[in-house]
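not sure who needs this but someone in the group chat was asking about PEP-CTERM protein-sorting domain-containing protein from Rippkaea orientalis so here u go. i didnt clean anything up, its just raw.
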Amino acid sequence: MNNMKPVKTLLSLSFATLGSLATATLSAQAAPVVFFDNMFTGATSFDSTVNSVDGTLNVDTWTSLPQGATIINRTDYSVTKVDGSAMFPSVYTLFGSSPSTNTSGQTIDISPSSSDVELSRLGSAIQFTFTTPVNGFGLEVGDWATCCQPSNLYISFDGGTPILVGASTVFGDQFLTNGGAGVFVGAIDDSGTFSSVQFWGNGVGEFLVAGGEIRYARVEEGSLTSVPEPATALSLLTIGVLSTAAKLKQYNKKS
């Protein structure tokens, strides 16, 4: 009877390990892919990533947007402020840029209303509502990192957990486009598809604009941040069971 105790212990440990492996494998969720760079390199990186997995990419340059509207309708989506306020689009010239550089198109004022992430979302975020679900989104941001640090930028899909896409801690640390206050930010979450996207910042007290050239995309689920498929998980479990059996066989021979 004493010889059975090590066997039981080995079995318990082995199957406990396999159970943990199965749980971790099947429940793992990969983080979204984040894009943060100057306006030109960032946009190119976003496009290349979508194209690398044969995704569908759309680019919309904001021109001739209406003034004073609370909703702006584009071909594939509509634009609103989460707080319902009116929008007055304009092209932004990047502070400090040399040579002088403008955003690719018009932008909308989304100056943060609070340093609290959720309160600023409610008071200043811009929302894009799509007619066909997407899972990739990017845009240009202007006049950021000019004051009021710490100042962060966030994207959220379908009102979910904010995704940090930019962080500034001191004046000028993110003047990335021709030395001026302009960046491209974006995110792709291939865990599913989404009907709305929100974008905002929390550097309360700073002037902040977003828009210019909007990028939105759809890639296959799991094509960029895939986790092991069920078949892979089953293979791992099978290997574990065989390993356990081999150890038991060796133990029996020694006994």
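also The domain at 28-218 is CATH 2.60.120 (Jelly Rolls). if thats useful
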